[in-house]
Amino acid sequence: MREFWLLVDDVLGPAQGRALTHELVIGALGNTTAERALDDGVEPRDVWHALCDELGIPDSQRWGSDPHRVAPPRR
To answer: What would be one Pfam family of this protein (predicted)?
Structure first.
């Protein structure tokens, strides 16, 4: 969960990222928000991939500025 929020802040920006996770309804998550999906127990990696897919963020930019961060695979 910690890694999810670090990525949100790094990739989307702290203010915009938090707003998107709270407000953006994502079809791949059952027409709910990322925040609600996490509260409902959806794995953070699945929420992250769905959020990035919805926003059109390419794989090369999904893992933030840390060159040593290992991307979790999709399930």
So the answer is: DUF3046
> Count of alpha carbons within 13 Å of 57, Cβ hemisphere only?
18
Task: Give the separation between CA 66 and CA 46, rounded to whole angstroms.
Answer: 20
Q: Could you read off the pLDDT tens digit of each residue along the chain, which spans 75 residues?
A: 999 999 999 999 999 999 999 999 999 999 999 999 999 999 999 999 999 999 999 988 998 888 877 767 777
* Other CB atoms within 10 A of residue 26 CB: 20
Q: What is the DSSP letter of 59?
A: G
CB atoms within 10 A of CB 8: 21
Please report, for the chain, the start and end positions of each structural domain, with discontinuous segments joined by +: 2-61
Local structure of residue 28 (DSSP, 8 states): G
Helix (H) or strand (E) segment spanning residue 2 = helix 2-7
